[in-house]
Design brief:
This is Ketoreductase domain-containing protein. By secondary structure, the chain is an alpha/beta fold. Helix content is 42%, strand content 15%. The protein has a single domain (17-239), classed as Rossmann fold (3-Layer(aba) Sandwich). The chain has helices at 26-37, 49-58, 75-89, 113-138, 162-179, 199-205, 215-227; strands spanning 17-21, 41-46, 66-69, 94-97, 144-149, 186-192, 237-239.
Length: 240
C-alpha cells in the first residue's frame, strides 16, 4: 500500500511497501526476503538484472513485488526510479538506502582517486539522490520513514578503510541534518546494521568474517527494527 497507514509502532501487523536499494545481495537481499515472508511489498533496485530476476522469483507472490535495474549513483536513474515507483506502487511507506561499497584495504595514499570516488558516489551521493527524489513525494502526506544504512565505522575510525569511514560519517551527518528539514510525521534515521558476514566484511576481515552472523539471521532483527520506526525516531542514530 502507499504511505497512508499511520506509523505507530505496529510492526508487521499492517502491510507496508518498502523500497530497498542494493537489494541483489548481502543485507539488502536478506532484508527483502524477510519482509516478503512477513507479507510486505518489496520494491528493490540494484545494477544487476539477473540477480534481481532471481530474487523476485524466490519471494512469496513474486508478482506482488517490483524490481528495477537502477544505478543510484546516477541522479537521472534515481529520478526515473521515483517516477516508476509512484506509477506502479505509489509512495513507499519505508525506504532503506542500503546500497553501498567499500574500498580494498589500503592506506589512503594507496587508494586510487577512482576507487575513492566510487565509495563516495555510491555511499553518499547515492543516498543524496534518493533523498532528492523521494522526500518531495512524502512531504505532502507528512508520512514516510527513510533509513540510511550507516556503520560502526560511521561513528569511529579504522585504518585501511578511510574512504569507507568517511562515507559513513557523511551518512550520519546527512541523516541528522535532513531530519531537521522534513515535517513532523516523517523520519530520517541512520542505522548501523552491526557486524554481519557479507562480501564487504570479507573484503576487510578475510576468512575471520565467517565467524559473524549471516545476513538472514540479521534480517530477522533488522526487519522488526525498521518496521517499528516512527516519526518519533526522526534524526536518531540507531543500531540493529
Amino acid at each position: 500500500m502507499a504511505a497512508t497507514t499511520p506509523f505507530n509502532g505496529i510492526g508487521k501487523s499492517v502491510s507496508r511497501t518498502v523500497l530497498i536499494t542494493g537489494v541483489s545481495r548481502g543485507l539488502g537481499r536478506a532484508l527483502a526476503q524477510e519482509l516478503a515472508k512477513r507479507g510486505h511489498t518489496v520494491i528493490g533496485c540494484s545494477r544487476t538484472q539477473d540477480k534481481l530476476t532471481s530474487l523476485q522469483s524466490e519471494l512469496p507472490n513474486p508478482d506482488h513485488h517490483l524490481f528495477l535495474n537502477v544505478d543510484i549513483r546516477s541522479n537521472s536513474s534515481v529520478e526515473e526510479l521515483a517516477r516508476l515507483v509512484v506509477e506502479k506502487k505509489g509512495v513507499p511507506d519505508i525506504i532503506v538506502n542500503n546500497a553501498g561499497t567499500i574500498n580494498k584495504n589500503n592506506k589512503i595514499w594507496d587508494v586510487s582517486p577512482e576507487e575513492f570516488d566510487t565509495v563516495i558516489d555510491t555511499n553518499v551521493k547515492g543516498i543524496a539522490n534518493m533523498l532528492r527524489h523521494f522526500i518531495p513525494l512524502m512531504i505532502p502526506i507528512k508520512q514516510g520513514i527513510i533509513v540510511n544504512m550507516s556503520s560502526g565505522w560511521g561513528r569511529s575510525g579504522a585504518a585501511l578503510v578511510a574512504p569507507y569511514c568517511a562515507s559513513k560519517w557523511a551518512v550520519e551527518g546527512l541523516s541528522r541534518s535532513v531530519a531537521k528539514e522534513v515535517p513532523d510525521g516523517m523520519a530520517i534515521v541512520a542505522l548501523n546494521p552491526g557486524v554481519i558476514n557479507t562480501d564487504m566484511l570479507t573484503s576487510c576481515f578475510g576468512t575471520s568474517a565467517a565467524s559473524y552472523q549471516p545476513p538472514d539471521a540479521w534480517a530477522l532483527k533488522a526487519a522488526t527494527t525498521i518496521l517499528n520506526l516512527t516519526g518519533a525516531d526522526n534524526g536518531a542514530s540507531l543500531t540493529v
